Amino acid sequence: LTKKIRDAGAFLGRVELEGLPAIPYNDPNKRNLVAEVSTKTTKVYGAGQSPKIIAYDCGMKFNIIRYFVNDHKVQLTVVPFDYDLEKNEDNIDWDGLFLSNGPGDPTLMNKTVKSIQYAMGLEPAKPIFGICLGNQLLSLAAGAKTYKMKYGNRGMNQPCIDLRTSRCYITPQNHGFAVDTDSLPDTFKPFFLNANDLTNEGVIHTHKPFFSVQFHPEASGGPMDTAFLFEKFIGNVKGEVERLTLLNPMQYDRNIYKKVLLIGSGGLSIGQAGEFDYSGSQCIKALKEEGIETVLINPNIATVQTSPSATGADRVYFLPIRAAQVLEVIKKERPDGIIVSMGGQTALNVGIELFNNGDLERENVKVLGTQIPVIEATEDREIFAEKLKEIDETIALSYPAVNLEEAKEAANKIGYPVLIRAAFALGGLGSGFAANDQELVDLAKKAFVTSDQILIDQDLRGWKELEYEVVRDCRDNCITVCNMENFDPLGIHTGDSIVVAPSQTLSNAEYFMLRRTAIKVVRHLGIVGECNIQYALNPNSMQYCIIEVNARLSRSSALASKATGYPLAYVATKLSLGKDLVSIRNSVTKTTTACFEPSLDYCVLKMPRWDLKKFNRVGKELGSSMLSVGEVMAIGRNFEEVMQKACRMINQALPGIEGESSNLIDEHIPLETQMTKATDTRLFAVQTAFERGYTVQKVHDLTKIDKWFLSKLKNISNMKAATSKIKGLPALTAQPSTIKALKVNGFSDRQIANYVGSDEISVRNARLALNIRPCVKQIDTLAAEFPAQTNYLYVTYSGSENDVDIAPEIDDRDLKAKGAVVLGCGAYCIGSSVEFDWCAVSAVRQLRKDGYKAIVVNYNPETVSTDYDESDRLYFEELSLERVLDIYQLEGAGGVIVSVGGQIPNNLSTPLSNNGVNIMGTQAKDIDRAEDREVFSDMLDKLDIDQPKWSVLKTMSEATTFANKVGFPVLVRPSFVLSGAAMRVCTDESQLTNFLAQAADVAGDKPVVVTKFILNAKEIEFDGVAQVRHHEGEVQRIQYSTLQFSWASSLLKLPHNSNPSTPIFTR
After folding, report:
1. What percent of the chain has pLDDT over 70?
2. Residues 546, 533: Cα–Cα separation, whole Å
3. Is 90 exceeded by the pLDDT of residue 590?
4. Helix or strand holding residue 914 (H, E)
C-alpha cells in the first residue's frame, strides 16, 4: 500500500468487510475538517499563570496544552479556529499567539488567516509561533502560497535542517500540504528544510518575532529533539534577548588527510571476530572514495580487508597489533591520520598506548573520529561515572579496585551479590558474579591476571538489557540508528544473549526516554562517529541505569548495520574525516540523506552460536563473560518467524524451535533447573516446558524472560500441538489456511512433515500445488517510503507481493545473465570462520568481474559477503534445502556454488542436486565421494593408494573387534563434519565405546569410520585447482595446479623435516 501511495500519490480508500455491503468512498478533501475538530468554545488552562498565550485550536494535540501549561507554566486560552481576534469579543488578555496543528487544506481557513494578519500588524509586535498547519497559516497570512503534496510527509523520523546553523534534527510529522518557499515575501525566510525532499519545513520573519515549523516539536509520541522551539517562543513572549545564532566556524575547519593508517583487529577471538573484517572493509572503502591513501596493519591472512583488490588498502602490513610494531609502520609510512575504532578492543588499546606515550603527537599523526581522552573516559569506570554525573545521569553502583582489599571494601559497600569485571577487557574477559567475600577473592584473582584494575558493579540481574547505536558528526547532528533488546534479562553477556531489533517490549515512553538519554550522553562525551550505549531497565518501573558506552565499532554495530541496512562503519569513517551526516547520502535509496533514523517494517533476531562441546571441562552456564564464537541473524515479519528461522540457522539438524524433539534437553537434570540456569540450551528447555503444559507466568517466574517473548514461544508450541493432531498430509492439504498460518509463523516444510508423518519434499510439493509461496521483501531503511536502489532481500510468507522482479525470462544458455547463487558460510564456529567469508567474497567478486550475475545467500551479520554492495542480490536467509530451492526458483538462476562456504553448503550439494539444481563446479556425487568416509576409503583401496587400516562402524562389537585386531590407538571419524566434530583418538575399549555413541549422534545417517591411528606421523596438506573438460561423455583433459603445501598446524612455504621425495610423491 505504501508503494502504491508513493507512486500514485494520495488516493481515496475504504475498508470492506466480507459479507457486508460496501460503504461509499468518503472524500475528506471536500469537508472543512478543521471546523469539525476545533473547539466550539473558548477554554482557559492554567488560569493565573504567566505569560498569557492565545492558542488557535485547528485540531490541537493535548500534549501541546500539557507542554505549555505544565512545563512552561503559561496561561493558555484556547479559542475556536474562526475566532475573530480583532473583535476579541471575550476580551482576552494575551502576550503571544500560538497557531496549532490541524487537518486539511489551509486555504479553507480565511477567517483564521485574517486574524493572524491582524496580529502581525500590531505594534509593538507580539510573538507568533505556529506548528504543522500553523506553519501554512502563518505563511498564507504573510502572502505566500501553499500546495498539496503528492502524499505528504508522515512519520516520526523526518530529517529537517535548521537553516541558521545547518544542524539537522529528527522530527515527527503528519501533513499533506506544504508552503511554496518561492512565494514567500522578502520579510520572511525559510527556517527549516526537509533534508530528503527539500520541501519547506518552517518560516521565520527577518526582524519580528514570528516563526513557524511544519513538524511537531512537542509530539507526545516523540522524538522531541526540537522542543527548544517552544522555549524560544516563550522567551520571545517574555521579552528575553534571544541568543545570537552563529555557525560554528570549527564545523568547517576540516582537515584534509592524504594518508591514513587503519589498525585492524588481528586474529579472531571470542568477543572479537569477523565483524571487524566487515567494519574495516567498509572503512577502507570510505577512505578510498575520498581519494585517501590507505595503509592497513592486520596479521590475519584470512580476512577480506587484507586481500588485494581495487577497493582495498594501498598497502597491508601483516604485523602484530602492538604499539611498537604500529609505531614502526608510522615512522615508515608517515601517515597524517590514524583510525583506531575499527579494530575492536585490541586496536583501541594500542591507540590509547600510542597516544599516552606521546608517539602520535611526536609523529604528527591525528586520531580520526572520537578522540583518545573521550575513549578513555568511556573505558575508565571512575571517569565515566563522573562524566555522567555532570549531566544528571547515573550508572549502576560501581567502584574500581586495584587490589583485593579495595575489591572487598567496594563489594561490601554495594552489597552482595556483585559483578566483578576487568577494566579495558574484551568480551567480559575475567568477569563473573560473586555472592560473598570468598567468591569475590577467587574471581578478583583471575580478573587481575588480565588487567591492573577491576570493577565491582551492582548486580542488576533480572532487569531488561537494551542497546542503542548512536551516530554523531562534528556539527553535533546526532541520530539513533537502531535500538536492540535482549531476549534474556541482564546477567548474561550481550554476546551470549538472543537480541531482537527493534525492541519489542518497550513502551513508547520508555523507548524515547532511553533515546533522549543516549543522545544527551553522546553529545556530552563529544563522540564523533559511531558508538553503542547499553542500558539496564527495571521491568517494573521507568528506572534505568547506563551500563556502558563503547566509543568504537562493535559486534552490536555490525548487527545494527545489517539489521537496518545503515552502513555504520562506512558512515563513521566519513564522519571521522570531518564530513557531516546531512551531506552523506543514504547508500540504499541513493537519494535521501544519511541523517535519518531507519524505519523497520520487519523484525530481526540475533542468536549466538556456541561450540562448548568441543572443549573438555568447559561449563555450559552463561554469565557476564562471553562464550559464543559466532552468531546468526534472522529477518521476518513477526517474532515467531524469526525465532524459528534463527534456530534452523544455528543448528542445521533443527527444523525449527523444538522442545522434546530437539534432543538438546538433558534428561538427567530437572527441567526447571535447566530453565533457571542460563545455558546454551535453555531456550529449548523453555520450549519443552510449554510442550509439557507450563504457563507463561510459570516460565517467567523461573527465567525472568519477558512474558511477551514467552507468549510468542507458547504460540509456537500451541500451533505445533494443533498441527500434530492432523492425520496425514492429505488431511493437512485440505486446510490451506492452516498451512499458510504455519508458514507465516516460521514453520519449515520439514517441521510440518514431522508433525503429520510425511517428508519434506512431499510437503513442499503439496504447498506449491496450493500456490502457497513466499514473497521476496527488501531491506530499504525507510519502509518503502522512498524507492530502494539496493537488492538487500529476505524471504517471508507475510507479504502479498515481491518487492523486486523475480525469475525473468532468460535463455537457459545465457548462464551469465541467469547468474550463480553463491552459498555463504553461515555462523562462525570452531573450524569455520572468516576464511570462508574470504572464499565467498572472492568468488562473488570474480563472478561479477567475469560478467555473471552474483546472488549471495548467507545469514551471518559479521561477514563482508552480507554487505549488500558486494553482490547483485543478497538474500539474508537460511542455508537450508527449502530456502535455497525457493531462491533458486525465484531467481531462475543458472546454478549454485557450494564450494566456497565450508561444510554447510557442501552438505546441501546432494539434496539440491537430487531436486534438479545445477551444482556449479565439483558435482554432488564427487563431493559425496570425498565427504563420505566409507566411500572415500574404499576408493583409495581400489586405486591402491596407501592409507591406515580402516573399518566402517556397523555395530559396537565389530568396531571393538577391529580396534583390537589393528591395535589401539584408533581414530573415530564421522562423515560430513567440520573441524573434527566428534572426532577422537581412542586408546582403549572404554573410550571407543563412549566416543562411538557421540560420533553416531553427530553423523546421523552418515557413515562413521574407525581407522588405525599412526603415532608420531607427520601430517601433510596439499591444495590444488583442477578443471575436468568433458566431450561426448569422455574426459579429454585434466588441468591442475599446485597452490599450497602445508605441514602440521602451521602454514609453511614447504614442509620442513620431510623426505625430499615427499612433495613429488604426494603430487
Report:
1. 93
2. 8
3. no
4. helix 903-914
The least confident of 27-36, 377-386, 671-680, 1004-1013 is: 1004-1013
Residue 476 CA to chain centroid, in angstroms? Answer: 24
Across 712-730, average pLDDT: 97
Lowest model confidence (mean pLDDT) among 530-544, 699-713, 796-810: 796-810
Sheet containing strand 603-609, edge to edge, reads 544-550, 529-537, 464-472, 478-486, 499-501, 603-609, 630-636
Question: What crossing angle do the helices spanning 508-525 and 381-389 adopt, rounded to 10°?
Answer: 110
Distance of CA 805 to the CA centre of its chain: 26
Predicted local distance difference test score (pLDDT) of residue 585: 87
What is the DSSP code string of 946-1002?
Answer: ----EEE-SSHHHHHHHHHHH-S-EEEEESS-STTTT-EEE-SHHHHHHHHHHHHHH
Q: Which of 217-231, 411-425, 518-532, 651-665 has the lowest mean pLDDT?
A: 411-425
| Spatial separation of the C-alpha atoms in residues 425 and 448, rounded to whole Å | 11
Residue 1034: the pLDDT is 44
List, as one string, the DSSP characters of 701-734: HHH---HHHHHHHHHHHHHHHHHHTS-SHHHHHT
Cα 386 to Cα 392: distance, rounded to the nearest angstrom:
10
Contacts of 444 (CB under 8 A, 6+ apart): 401, 404, 407, 420, 454
What are the helix (H) ranges across 28-179? Answer: 33-37, 62-66, 110-120, 133-142
Q: What pLDDT shows up at residue 721?
A: 97
Residue with cell 507458547: 714
For every residue of 790-809, which 3-state class applies, written as one string?
CCEEEEECCCCCCCCCCCCC
Measured between alpha carbons, how far is 482 from 523 in angstroms, rounded to an integer?
17
Q: From CA 586, how far away is CA 573, in angstroms rounded?
A: 14
Virtual CA dihedral for 572, 576, 582, 587, nearest 10 degrees?
Answer: -40
Amino acid found at 710: L
> Which residues are known to be catalytic?
132, 216, 218
Residue 735: Cβ within 10 Å count: 14
CB proximity list for 619: less than 8 A, separation 6 or greater: 612
User: Within 13 Å and on the Cβ side, how many CA atoms surround 483?
Assistant: 24
CA distance 821 to 487: 33
Picking from 763, 889, 831, 916, the residue whose alpha carbon sits closest to that of residue 611 is 831
Give the type of residue at 796.
Answer: T
Q: b or e along 521-549 (b: 16 or more beta carbons within 10 Å of the residue's beta carbon)? A: bbeebebbbbbbbbbbbeeeeeebbbbbb
SS3 state at 399: strand
Distance CA 561, CA 481 (A): 9
Domains of the chain plus CATH, in order, are 33-247 (3.40.50.880), 255-368 (3.40.50.20), 397-459 (3.30.1490.20), 461-578 (3.30.470.20), 605-772 (1.10.1030.10), 776-929 (3.40.50.20), 932-1012 (3.30.1490.20), 1020-1066 (no CATH)
